[in-house]
Automatic annotation (TrEMBL):
Classification via Pfam families: HATPase_c (PF02518), HisKA (PF00512)
PANTHER family the UniProt entry points to: SENSOR HISTIDINE KINASE GLRK (PTHR42878:SF7), TWO-COMPONENT HISTIDINE KINASE (PTHR42878)
GO molecular function: kinase activity
Keyword field contains DNA repair: no
Protein name: histidine kinase
Superkingdom per UniProt: Bacteria
Length: 472
């Protein structure tokens, strides 16, 4: 059975689960039918018995009246016909009395009535009306008691029938609860057989997307899902091969590019300084173009390598740092490019310490400052604000310049996406700056977006989680 479940298709497993869930429902329906049939049969039996008892009581009551009339008439007119009529009524009553006595369970009362009946049957021919009157009166009184006992018996039977119905309902209710619980267990078991491999598939997909170690455990379950698991395993292996080739290519490309690029920059520097001989104006212009292209190629190469290093960093290493020190080091590195465009930093940072990964935080700062310097207006300030807001660490970097359209804001955080606003420096952007900011913020558990503020035309805000505890 276990082997067949593991090798069954998803459709077969769903049908089997549906069939298993229907079994308790079928049992419940059968139990309900059985209980209803029992109640109906018991009700019919009790109804027939009650009708028979009522009929006997009415017949006996009528016979008592007929016996009194016939006996009194015989006492007045002593004829054989009246004697036969009275004997007939007495015999009929005698035949009904044992049937009633067997049902009501009153032996003493039945015995007394039997004695009274025997007295009347033996003595009604010889006794006078005056002598018969107390005997008939006692006979009628005891018959009324018998009738009352019959009605009490019917009431008890009705109560017993009600208890039987209530017991049947309770038993059916407990059976319903048990079968519903069994159905729930079967449904949970069946859903577990289906959802367990789905969760494993989700784990495999997340491992592929987050570049984690692919699970070694083999997927078990429906045939379609196991085949999909094997395809994901093949995809993971293929992606690992491609990732290895990409890293090898980047390492070789960086090594092969840096060496000739350094030579080109040194040669351009020698030519521009005219150390190898004087150059005319046109030659100096060509050398300037070569030098600018070499600088741009160097910047683009460094950005590409930096983005590649970011992709390889799987887990941040946070620690307590001084935000003033991190900000000062970043501003010093960008001081020359900011000074060339007449831009100054307006800093607002009331925090003493922050808990973050210094490398990732520094990459965020570098790219945001570089972005503000490249796209900000000349002789305009660059606003940098680092503060706490509720349970978040907020970093705002704003500048004046052309506002970014709302439709392009989310797209700019994707790799190799550039806006329509031109840069004011000599380097042509690669579209990786804001993508690196977003990826670094994501690694730190936060996110980056472009917001509207009143003091700047463009403001990029990075929200990072903030720990409440302070270092010892």
């Amino acid at each position: 059975m276990r082997f067949s479940l593991q090798t069954a298709s998803l459709r077969q497993l769903v049908l089997l689960s549906f069939f298993l869930a229907l079994i308790p429902v079928a049992v419940l329906m059968w139990q309900s039918h059985k209980a209803l049939s029992g109640v109906s049969k018991h009700a019919v039996t009790e109804a027939e018995s009650s009708i028979s008892s009522v009929r006997r009581a009415e017949n006996m009551q009528n016979l008592v009246v007929d016996i009194e009339r016939a006996v009194r008439q015989y006492a007045v007119i002593k004829t054989d016909a009246l004697a036969r009529v009275a004997s007939s009524h007495l015999n009929n009553y005698q035949s009904l009395l044992p049937l009633v006595c067997n049902n009501i369970g009153q032996p003493q009362l039945c015995q007394q009535q039997q004695l009274q009946l025997a007295t009347i049957m033996s003595d009604f021919r010889s006794l006078s009306s005056t002598q018969l009157e107390p005997i008939l009166q006692q006979f009628r009184l005891q018959q009324q008691q018998l009738t009352q006992q019959i009605w009490l018996m019917l009431e008890k039977n009705l109560q017993a029938q009600q208890r039987f119905v209530v017991d049947s309902q309770q038993q059916l209710a407990w059976q319903t609860v048990a079968l519903v619980f069994l159905t729930l267990l079967l449904v949970m078991w069946a859903s577990g057989r289906i959802t367990a491999p789905v969760r494993k598939l989700d784990k495999m997909i997340r491992a592929i997307g987050q570049q984690h170690q692919f699970p070694d455990e083999k997927l078990t379950g429906p045939r379609e899902l196991t085949e999909l698991g094997e395809q994901l395993r093949w995809l993971s292996s293929r992606l690992q091969q491609l990732e290895a080739l990409r890293l090898i290519l980047l390492r070789h490309a960086s090594h092969e590019l840096k060496t000739p690029l350094s030579s080109i920059r040194e040669g351009c520097s020698l030519l521009s300084e005219q150390l190898v001989g004087p150059l005319n104006t046109q030659q100096l212009e060509v050398v300037g173009l070569l030098n600018g292209s070499a600088d741009r190629l160097s910047v683009l190469t460094e950005q590409l390598l930096d983005y590649n290093r970011l992709l390889q960093q799987a887990k941040p290493e946070p620690d307590w740092h001084s935000p003033q020190q991190l900000l000062s080091e970043c501003f010093n590195d960008h001081a020359l490019s900011l000074q060339q465009r007449g831009q100054i930093i307006e800093l607002h940072c009331p925090l003493d310490t922050i808990y973050t990964d210094a490398t990732l935080f520094r990459r965020i700062l570098d790219n945001l400052i570089n972005n503000a310097q490249a796209y900000g207006s000349q002789n305009s300030p660059v606003w940098v604000k680092l503060y706490q807001q509720e349970h978040q660490l907020i970093l705002d970097v704003g500048n004046n310049g052309n506002p970014i359209p709302t439709a392009l804001r989310e797209k700019l955080f994707e790799p190799f996406q550039r806006g329509t606003t031109p840069r004011f420096d000599a380097v042509q952007g690669s579209g990786l700056g804001l993508s690196i900011v977003a990826d670094c913020a994501r690694l730190l558990g936060g996110h980056a977006d472009i917001v509207d503020v009143i003091y700047a035309d463009v403001c990029i805000r990075v929200r990072l989680p903030l720990l409440e505890e302070k270092p010892a």
